[in-house]
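Researcher: Here's my situation. A collaborator sent me these components and asked whether they could plausibly form a single complex. I don't have experimental data yet, so a predicted model of the whole assembly would be a useful starting point for our discussion.
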Amino acid sequence: EPEVTQTPSHQVTQMGQEVILRCVPISNHLYFYWYRQILGQKVEFLVSFYNNEISEKSEIFDDQFSVERPDGSNFTLKIRSTKLEDSAMYFCASRMDIWPLHFGNGTRLTVT
Amino acid sequence: AQTVTQSQPEMSVQEAETVTLSCTYDTSESDYYLFWYKQPPSRQMILVIRQEAYKQQNATENRFSVNFQKAAKSFSLKISDSQLGDAAMYFCAYSHHRGANSKLTFGKGITLSVRP
């Protein structure tokens, strides 16, 4: 069965550094998402992406965040200047026109 | 805005017994989807079961079934014959029917432990 693939599985970065989280969604999917989960807490929506543009973004998704689908297969989340509170599990997800949402295994981001 | 409420933070069940996890939601939409996702210690998000709001029949997937009460906006998950591998965090989630602006909204989750 096709999967959403996320790399790396764990990323450690220093505060203030830029980080790029990478995702390869399922190939025929149309809608792409990033979610965040701070350890032990709820899964929070960050941003959705369709037709090469952002469909919706949450309050969390401020100017420090950006998304890109540079080549038709990858879907990236960039955090420009990381803060300690950005430490979390980041999930990429994708779907076709219908539900459900298929999640990747996540990237654990640790900001020191 | 849509909200999903899981009021029980933790539950415990004896192996082989049945447990029900509660979820309520709030929406003004008439057409939507509801889901239960399982998150084991590996932190993957695994779809357990889904329910379309227009379907009156409750969804079932092997040992997992739901009790969907649309008027009461309630969506509980029943796990029968609980197994040790069922121990995980379980999230209830809601989405609009379709469309580019549709997203999944999660509850806070419930930690289920299974006693041998």
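Model: Some features of this prediction you could bring to your collaborator: Chain B is about 0% helix and 55% strand. Chain B touches chain A through 23 residues (CB under 8 Å).
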